[in-house]
Structures are given as C-alpha cells and as structure tokens.
Amino acid sequence: MAKKEEKNNKKNNNKNQSAAPKGDSVTAVDFDEFTRKMERTLEVLQEDFGTIRTGRPNARLLDRITVPYYGADSAISSVATIVSPDARTLQIQPWDNSLLKPIEKAIQASDLGIHPQNDGRVIRLAFPPLNEERRRDLSKQVKNMGENGKVALRNVRRDAMDYIKKLKKNSEITEDDQKNAEKVLQELTDKYIKKVDEACAVKEKELMEL
User: Exposed, middle or buried, 203 (CB in 10 Å: 0-12/13-18/19+)?
Assistant: First the structure.
C-alpha cells in the first residue's frame, strides 16, 4: 500500500513539474531578444540624430564620412583628432599627414555642405548659423527618422507576435499565456515608441536653439 501511494505521489509531482512553465507568461515567453532589438533601434536613431547639425557642430557630423587607409575605408574619427575650438568650427588633425588630402576630398564629396579649409597641418570646417528655413528642413528630417524608427519597432513586434503564435501552435504555451504575452509585448512596444517620440522632441528642441 505504501509503495502504491509513493508511486502516485511521484506521478503527481512529475505532472506538476511539466505543467509549471506554462503557468506564467514571463517564463513561457522570453522577450529578451526582441527587447534587445528594440533597444538597438533606439540606439541607431540616436546615431542618426548625431549626423544632423544643431546650433553647435559636433564630431558626430563626420561619422558617415570615410577615407581609404591601409586598404580599408575608415571613419575620420578613427584616423584623426576632431575638436571644436569654438561654437562654429570643427578642426580635424590627422594622425598621419598623408591623410589631409583624402579627408579634404571625402568631405567635399559628402552631403555635409561645408567647404574644408586645409592649411597643410589641419582641416577646418566653418559652419554658418542655421537660418529658419534650414532649421525647419532639419526638423522634418528628424520627424522622418523618428517614423522610420517606429516602423522598425513595429517590425520587431510583428516578429515577436509570430514567435508567440508559433509557441502556441506547438503547444508550448497555453491560450492564457498567449494573451498575457501579447499584452506584455504591446506594452513593450508602446514604451519604446514613447522613447522615440521623446528623443525626437529633444532633437527638435536642439534645432530650434540659437
């Protein structure tokens, strides 16, 4: 009789252990991968914002301009020191003087819209003040970047929804787990969309500052 009772207890314990993961949507559905993708989307947006000039020029304006160096295209910031000696100027001093001409040509060929001044030792970029029309144009660029960021976030959400449906189809989660997971996913998406809106608002404010 004792052996039979022990056998039944063991069977019930095994049953409870196998069902445990389905009792909690947090453990049943792991959103870590999708959270990292949303966080990376926000990081890329901030990197893009860095290439838009505000009232004071900064070195990140040159992030997308590369020069050939030892057989590879290198960012200017990786082959030179970039400083801002005043509110309207960037100064570039290559670590190798042979890069002065390539850097000058790369800036001329870019969409930066600034003529580089090469004195044989450093390159200076003098930025004129932004007029009202230019500020409005840049503000539109910020809005477009923000919308692109939101599209990227919604794409991540779509992939996560497909993942949840796949788990349900494979009977790895219950219907309640699926509903809870979809709710958590929507809250996560809303949180990052709000972060995009906040980042856009900060950038637009910078553009309007004299």
Answer: buried
> Please, are residues 51 and 75 in contact by the beta-carbon 8 Å criterion?
no
Instruction: Reply yes or no on whether the pLDDT at 37 is more than 70.
Output: yes
Query: 21 pLDDT band (50/70/90 cuts)?
Result: very low
Cα 138-139-143 angle, rounded to 5 deg = 115
Q: What is 56-126's CATH number? A: 3.30.1360.40
Q: What percent of the chain has pLDDT over 90?
A: 53
How is the chain split into domains, by residue range?
A: 29-49+132-208, 56-126
- Cα distance between residue 69 and residue 98, in whole Å: 10
- Where does the pLDDT of residue 14 fall: very low under 50, low under 70, confident under 90, or very high at 90 and above? very low
Could you give the 3-state DSSP secondary structure of residue 93?
A: strand
Count CB atoms within 10 A of the CB of residue 201: 12
pLDDT in tens, 151-165: 999 999 999 999 999
Token digits of residue 64: 């997308």
CATH architecture under which domain 29-49+132-208 falls: Orthogonal Bundle (1.10)
- What DSSP letter does each residue of 97-142 carry, written as one string? GGGHHHHHHHHHHSSS----EE-SS-EEEEPPPPPHHHHHHHHHHH
